[in-house]
Amino acid sequence: MDKTPDASGSTPDAQSTTETTMTTGHTMSQTPQRILITGGASGLGRAMAEAWLRDGARVLIGDVNQERAAETLAALKDLPGELQFQYLDVRDAASFNNAREWLEQNWGGLDVLVNNAGVAGAARIDRGDMADWDWIFDINVKGVVRGCKVFVPMMKRQGHGHIVNIASLAGLLHAPVMGSYNVTKAGVISLSETLRFELAPYGIIPRWCARVSSAPICTSPCVPRNRHDRNRGQAAFQ
What we know:
Helix content: 25-40%
Shape: globular
Number of strands: 10
Low-confidence stretches: 6-21, 25-29, 220-238
Number of helices: 7
Order of helices and strands: EEEHEHEHEEHHEHEEH
CATH topology: Rossmann fold
CATH architecture: 3-Layer(aba) Sandwich
CATH superfamily: NAD(P)-binding Rossmann-like Domain
């Protein structure tokens, strides 16, 4: 199977296990949103980080590629908001727990979790190795599950939160030779729809999002720009 990072730019086969935190940005006078983006060092993850920073948010990007993270920090250092990086491997629940502990200690919680890290692979069903299926499922599906399991208890205690699970049009339209990728993205959509009803009573708003050209497809309204707008966002979601 040909293995490639998807739009998140995640490189899951990195061997580093060193916990690293880097930071840049400016102090904001108002309380900004607190965002965690997995696979945030490049690609779609970096683009989302940039957009939130321009809105004055505090963004923690988690990724296994520390070199790309350093490049992203340097490129976005002059934007408003606050940008930080922590090593985060979505295959490892301990990485998520480290990020949760950092967020609790430094920002007092989390408003938006973006499960963005993912990979792609291609092989015909009679040629692909089951190890390749295990690899892509561990990242694309179980990585999302791990993120939700670690941060949902925090969001329940807060009484609010947003979870954005990055899916793909591949989860709805099933191209040949992309079986493992298609199945994982369909799984992300199914999980998100399940959590939509499961977590609504706790003020937590999950959604999945995919892109068609430059237009995103999302299952609920955009994340409110600040925590004071969360009630309006929840009402729109319901």
